[in-house]
Amino acid sequence: MSEEQPPILTASMHDLRHFATILRGINFNNVRATVTILHRGLLVKVEEARTITATAFIFSDIFDEYIYHSENQQNDNLMESSQGELLDNTMFEVSLNTLIDCLNIFGTGGPTSSGTGGSGGNKRWRKQGEGSDNESGEENEARGRGRRIEPISTTGSEKHTGMHMTYAGGGYPLTLLIAEDASGPTTTCEISTYEPEPQLDLDFDNDRMILKIILKSSWFRDALSELDPSCDKLTFVSNPPEMTNNPRNGKQRKGSATKPILRIKAGGNFGTTEMDYPNDRDVLESFECTRSISFSYRFTHIAKTLRALQSSTKTSLRIDDEGLLSLQFMMPSPKARGPEGEGAQAFIDFHCLPLDEDVV
Amino acid sequence: MRFRAAVEAVSVFYKITQAVEKLQKRFIIKFTPENMHIICNHEANEGGTQVWSQIKIDSIFADYRIQSNADNQITMAISSEALLAALRSASASSTSATAYQVEEILMKLAKKNDRAVLRFDITGTTSVGRRVKVTHDVLVDVMKPHEVAKLAEPLCPDPDLHILLPPLQKLRTIVERLRPMSDILAFRANNNGKLQVSISTETARVQTEWKNLLNPKLNEEQAEEEGEKDLDKIFTVHVSTRSFLKFLNSHVISTSTIACVCQNHCLILYVYIGDATDVGGVLTFYIPAIIDGD
Predict the structure, then answer these.
(1) pTM
(2) Where is the composition biased (Polar residues) (chain A) (predicted)?
(3) Potential cystine with B196: which of A64, A124, A148, B188 (Cβ 3.0-4.6 Å)?
(4) Among A58, A64, A87, CA closest to A10
(5) Shortest Cα distance from B155 to chain A (angstroms)?
(6) What total of structural domains would you count in chain A?
(7) Domain for residue A201, yes or no?
(8) Which residue range(s) make up the domain with A212?
(9) pLDDT number for residue A117
(10) What CA–CA distance (Å, rounded) separates A241 from A262?
(11) Most A CBs within 10 Å: which of B206, B211, B251, as the mutation test of the A interface?
């Protein structure tokens, strides 16, 4: 069939660790993921308990080769606009566990990769610290990144596992060809695909946003990992910075002494834990809050984000007026990038509905 | 009945025990004047895998003395866990500097409270130079000659092919990933160096393929026959993924492994111990085929 009609998707990469790390970040227990193929890349989405969704955005430029032959060719003119591009997609469902196990078949997409990803994240974190120390700004930092990331990826593992992925269309399996090197074994995986089922859409409307925080993932990770796993409820409390203070000025923390600008509260059968973040630009890169809020979430749901959080570099936390929580994790990219590549970094997006306080 | 020996290569003994320990709670050791045979033939063990092995006495023991009324052979049933614990105590201390340096390990058949035990006497010196003696008594059941006579290796047809497996450690990683996907694993190979390990379920079909592996010729007669056969013909045997994974536990000891496929009958695996030039022994795994594969 490939002779007459090119497959809908052909993608390949020489090192699949990055891809595997991102997918592992959204791996809830034994759920099917909905994969959406777009011209710009892949969108992989999972959902649990109709409360939490996780979406990974994997842009086409992390693949060495990425060709999408849309079935809807008549929409050519629509594709011009970005809206059209979003409409021009192909969706299917696939078992995420199986996909991840297949990617890790040689044990090379495994925890080692998240380990190196983690250390890469730490290095980058330090670099950004340096970047903000000297005022020379973004460009300097990006160049430093390009120079210094290279040794990490080469020392991480001597051997790269390459992958070639094709999807021929509805009813066909997702085919993966995985090989470690030319002399070694090759693995062919055909993973069954399913018709996509209607998805839970937890869209975050920026107009209704109350709280928006951007912080380094390590700050958020450290806070969450402090918490006892027996907690069942996690509450985010946030207050606008005192109006007398200039909210942009991190040096003045008078307001935060009385009313925390961000407090994470965890409660369970054995007690409660409270953690306050200072209004310091070194900690919270940006902080916007329009009114005081307090929303609670099930801890087990928030805990599902930990794996993605661990391999990410930066976190954006947003909450809207009904308590819908959006957590976006920027994933470190395997390639050295120039400043123009920054916009296309892969990221993982979690949306979580709050607990109904009246019931709980 | 007399039996005593010094355990020279305790790590080899330990690793062999480790390789078969997962298979059965109790297994049989048969000592003859030349060889040690470890046998796992329990019907009840999961998947029906059997292990028959032959290890040269020289590769593990020294000062080996054996005497019995049954052709100077002694056969005993022993708990794998208890034997492993005794050997661990003997081998771990020889590597770690904390406890004591092992100088000598003596193994002998003894009697304790009217029951037969395999006694391991470990002597060594502590870091301050004091002598220590550690004794492990592992309870054994010495088998009677008529019981031993009943032990028989499984009968298999002439294998369709022999193939040298890639390093078991690597194979194990792959099979570990396949384990959650399917209970049945297809093992395919041909006489032209090709090996395929695959699973096939509703959710996924995953196949890993090796090329350019060796097809060892066991004897000349077979080599002649081979000329007439179609080298590219693939022979398949379906086995339990879990059983195959248990065989792969022998990666700790193996240097090279040869697999034989008896199509629709069984998979036979010869795990060689020691250098290729000086083979100290061989563990033979028989994994029965699952016929209703697909």
Answers:
(1) 0.79
(2) 238-249
(3) B188
(4) A64
(5) 33
(6) 2
(7) no
(8) 206-358
(9) 35
(10) 10
(11) B206
